[in-house]
């Protein structure tokens, strides 16, 4: 049997499927817990399970393995999540206690990879790191356990001892993953909502707060009135800010102009031009790309016979369509 958990609000519903199941079997399982599946979206590993198309459902059917948890979003009234800053604060408060549980070994020939002084360290993949340096390293790595030598991402459960702390980190990753989708947002009340119209002005079905979906500010906040347009309210709105830029001279070649900011094509984190060359390495995912053509650094160099100081092509525009969406239809 395959055990499946549905997570909706603060509730968990458990169900089972045969090892060999089809679209109809899963649909019946959903109907057992949710009267009208059309009112909800069912996501797994940031992929939407389509309950109204056998062909679309089959694309992600292999994700339904024993022990999986399916996140259930009600259309504009679902959820049960902490906002990212709140969860981040909780993790930072618990970090010291979680680190103190990890054993260290003393090796004078292999000191801490960062400070090179402390010889009593924890093992992190190919590296050793002391507990004093770990906090800054972990926060700077956006709470990822990236090996400083081979760059492999170490699973939390292989490093931290506390199961509760591991679950908190996994929850943060899940929320951050969902927030990459332009049509997902977390209301201040904790409701995780999906926007099918992609217009800015929305009302939370849980707390009735009227807000801009894309920057998550109260609709009447501030002196400047907001406009209800697709993707933006036009008042320092998040996605509009990610797309906007000014052209400034390239540091090493004043005849070439480069955007002063871009969002990473891989993880969508906003980054600024650092007054060096046109290539930028994302601080979040380490993806290296050209600020002008948006191609990966190696691709830019070979495709356009370019280098760090030359114009490869015209400045490529980024659009709202570049951001992923959890909904199948806009």
Automatic annotation (TrEMBL):
SUPFAM superfamilies assigned to the protein according to its UniProt record, in alphabetical order: RING/U-box (SSF57850)
Keyword Hydrolase: no
UniProt KW Nucleotide-binding keyword: no
UniProt xrefs under InterPro entries: E3_UB_ligase_RBR, Znf_RING_CS
UniProt superkingdom: Eukaryota
Sorted UniProt keywords: Metal-binding, Zinc, Zinc-finger
Biological process (GO), any one: protein ubiquitination
GO molecular function terms noted in the UniProt entry: ubiquitin-protein transferase activity; zinc ion binding
Protein name: RBR-type E3 ubiquitin transferase
Organism: Adineta ricciae
